[in-house]
Amino acid sequence: MQKQILESGSLQLSLRVYESASPARASVVIGGAMGVRQDYYAPFAGWLSAQGFRVTTFDYRGSGDSLPDTADGSLRGFQADLMDWARDYEAVVDKAKTALPDAPLYLLGHSLGAQLPGFLKNQSKVDGLVSIAAGSGYWRDNAPQLKRMVLYFWYVLVPVATRLFGYFPGRKLKKVGDLPAGVMLQWRKWCLNPQYSVGAEGETARLAYAAADFPVLALSITDDELMTWRGTQNLINLYTGAPRSFERVTPADLGVKRIGHFGFFREQFSQSLWPRTVQILERMHPTYAATGVTGTTA
User: How far apart are CA 65 and CA 44, in angstroms?
Assistant: First the structure.
């Protein structure tokens, strides 16, 4: 694994590159979930590189190892929103494609990491997106246990705490993690709109998602405590110009009691879910001729 620094605008992003020991058959960029550091994906990224892929992980600006260059790395007053994070994602895709220009490049998006590709301006460099535990964040699409407290979260906790601290102090509150104010307030706007990001951002956003023509496959986890099946469908179907498919994953299928929103990347699934990813990526080769929407849609 190599640690790298990437310039994105006036900021520096922290990257980690996992090179394959053999000639890499493809590049994979892992887009992380909201508030989740790239460290979390390290075991999976290392395993995937051993299967012949060149894997890149990164921290969005103002998170993880991509904190502001100040004495204490404070986010107070730090300017960043979700469109800035999409530009970070773009910059990482550009760098990964430059390193392996003749090979396919795939995105593996966990939660937010499968939402932001709709806003990438370099979608032509992407050959496929694997969405893991991702869906619309609209509050009515949230899982029941989350829905019980989410209106308090969005209407009271987020605006009050963000105004008071100048950023969202998620670590203090044990919610999501520390996030730039602009990111949190824009995410709030999305989550309160029935059409999520495209409803909050308007026609430009709708057209951006529609422009993506790479295949998208969503793995929906049945015991996901954050994302529902309806929410997953609502997100993936924003990619109206893309071949779309869905697969449901249940704990019973794997002989375990729980997977949840974060479980896919735990090493206990290195013999089950992780190899399934390789199979999906192999099917997403540019010669793969899938069209339309496949899989369970009910």
Answer: 19
Residue from 156, 154, 136, 133 nearest 33 by CA: 133
Q: List C-alpha distances in Å: 63 to 39, 68, 93, 250.
A: 12, 9, 18, 31
Considering the entire predicted model, what is its pTM? 0.92
Tokens standing for residue 267 = 């090493």
Residue whose structure tokens are 């990482």: 92
pLDDT digits (tens, 9 = 90+) for 185-227: 999 999 999 999 999 999 999 999 999 999 999 999 999 999 9
CA-to-CA separations, 186 to 10, 31, 159, 162, 197, in angstroms, rounded: 21, 18, 11, 12, 9
In sign, the C-alpha dihedral spanning 221, 226, 227, 230 is positive
What domains lie within the chain, and their CATH numbers? 2-295 (3.40.50.1820)
